[in-house]
Structure formats: C-alpha cells, structure tokens
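Contributing new complexes? Match this layout with zinc ion.
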Amino acid sequence: MDRRASGQAIILVVFLLSTALFPTHADAAAERMTHAEAKARIPERPLPDFWVGDLKGLALHVDGLKRGIASMLCVTPGGRPIHLVSYGQKENVAHLANYNSAIGGREPSAYMDKAARKKPVVFFVGPVHGHEVEALTGLVNLIQIMETGKDLRGKDQTSLRQLGDRCRLMIVPAGNPDGTARFEPRALEGMTGDDLRFWGQGTWKDDTLCGWPQVKRQHPMTGENVGFLGCYFDDAGINPMHDEFFTPMGPEAPAILKIAREEGPDLVVSLHSHESEPALLRPAYVPAEVQQDIRLLAEECYALLDKRNLPHDSPFEVRAEGGRNPDSFNLTSALYHICGAGSFTFECPHGLRDGCQVTLEQILDIQLALYEAMLRHEIDKKR
Ligand SMILES: [Zn+2]
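Output block (do not edit by hand):
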C-alpha cells in the first residue's frame, strides 16, 4: 500500500467511525436547506378553497357545525386545542372491563358489547404528522359532507353522507396541530422529496436535512443539535406516532387513545401521507385475523380507487412480526390494544413531482374513496 492509498484508507476509517458515532448526520452528507431557502422554494400559487392546509381553515369549519358535535380533547405543548367532531348518537352498551382484561377473560364483549350496537363506530385520526395535511383536507371535507351533503368543491356527496349517517363517526381532523402550525407551504403537491424532508422531518443544527430512519433515533427531538423542528413533532419535540404509550411524553397520543378506549370503535385509521401510491399498511402486533380484515378492506379500497382511475398500492401480506428490523409498536398498534378495533395506517400521496403525481383534486378524491370503503366495510359487517 503506497502512502497515498494508506492516507485514503485512514480517511475512510475516520469517515466510517464518524458515521457510526454520529448516525444522525450519516444520511445527510450532501443536502442542506435553511429555513429561508425552504420558504423561497414554496410555489406562489393560490390554493383552491376546498384545500384545508392550515389550522385557520380548520377552525372556521369546527366553529360552524350544525349537525356535528365538537369537543376539545386536550391542549398541545404549543397551547393549541385538539378537536373531536362526532356524528351519530353514542349507543351505551355493557362495558365491564378494559380491553386486555376482557381478552384475558376470553370475552371481548366484556370490554364493550359492540355487537349490541345498531351502528358501527368509525374513528378517523387526522394527521399526527403535522405536514400530512392531505387528511386534514379530507376530514374537513368529510365534515362538510356530513353537514351539507356536498364537499367543499360543491360536489354532491349524498351517498357518502348516507353511509356516514348509518355509522357513528368520530373525527379528529388534526392530530398534531403544533406540527401543522409549523407547515408553511400548506400543500406539498408539485414540490419535491427534499421539501418533504425539510418540512416533515426538519434539519439538524448545521442545516443538513434529517432523514429516515435517523430522524427517529432521537426522541424527543430536542437539544443542541436540532435545527428546524420538522412537522412530525409537536412543540415539545414529540412524534405522537411513537409516543411512549405506557408512560406518555406528549398529550396528543393519550388523548386519541382515551377516545378510542371510551368509544370502542369498530374501525380506526391513522391518516398519513408519503411519496408513493395510496397504501393501507399492515398493522403490526395485532392478531392475524385483524390483519386479514384490514387486508380485505385494502382490496375493497383499491378496487374503488381503480374504478375512479386513481392510483393505489397492492394489498400487504398478512404475517407475524420478526426479522432483523421488526416493525415498531406505534400509535396504530396501541389503538388496537386499547379497544380491539380494526386499526391501520393509511398513506396518501402528497403529489410530489418526484413521487406519485396526483393533483389536489385527486388527493381529495383518494381521501373520500378511502372513507367510503371504510364505512361500507363496517356497515356490511353489521348486516
Ligand atoms: Zn406520517
């Protein structure tokens, strides 16, 4: 080995050591973005009225409810309310034990006699990742549909409303308002994966973009090395998807779980967004039968998307946990274990220009198709 080669070898060893010691920077060697640069990249465009990309838009709709009932679940570290909007009467049925004790007693109905209810209960958990406002738009449109029979485009949605009327609906339009308040673009459609990384995951102190999976290796996301706090997090740096469910760090996940425990929904979705096609994800750490039921729902939802010329993923495989990197026990898993609901994560495309390219209108159509598939799925089971 000549001197130059040994010098290169030393540099390589130092590099490898530094990436091992400081994993948070390993993925972001080249990409930096300051807050000013990120703001300058936001396209100047009017967003359509049906698009709800911020808390102001949400507040307007929550204040004007006629049929729905709004309540406040909790206040975030940033002092913002988390709203719950419900439709349909709560049916009071026997409730003798918490869920896992009822399961231990081999009688799920001891937790809640769901079969005695006339209507299915469906729980929609809006974005716990604040920038994933596709679901905020979707859920505010669902509220508008339940109020008026039309979505915010003025499009008739009588049949979706009729399905909604046959269920009890629990809607948390924004699951992490602190994160949403930090999301300045109000939509990522037409932007890039780098914009998504900046606004979603944030940056380290030296302006390098955080990246997955490193962004999950520091939690809470607080301290000297944090730059722009991504919209994954509330103002205290908590990502509600990965709160410590047994000894909670933030208020959002416990508030969502409390509603699930009290209401005993039949079906619950945690609504997210990503770069690719719409996808219902395999719920982790739930029984195979629950996975199978969600897989069936995925098939129904994808068929509906197909019929409407909208993109979609293919159904996941039911399987047990395991392997070198098993899935995490996240909010979706916790939701199942607190109330026995069919529980899953939905990922909607943001419409990135370097991802699954869909328009804002198509994003709303994808959201509404999912909701329709969910309501039909549960109504069919009640028959
Ligand atoms: Zn997410």
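Reviewers usually confirm one structural detail per submission. For this one: Residues 129, 132, 272 surround zinc ion (CB under 6 Å).
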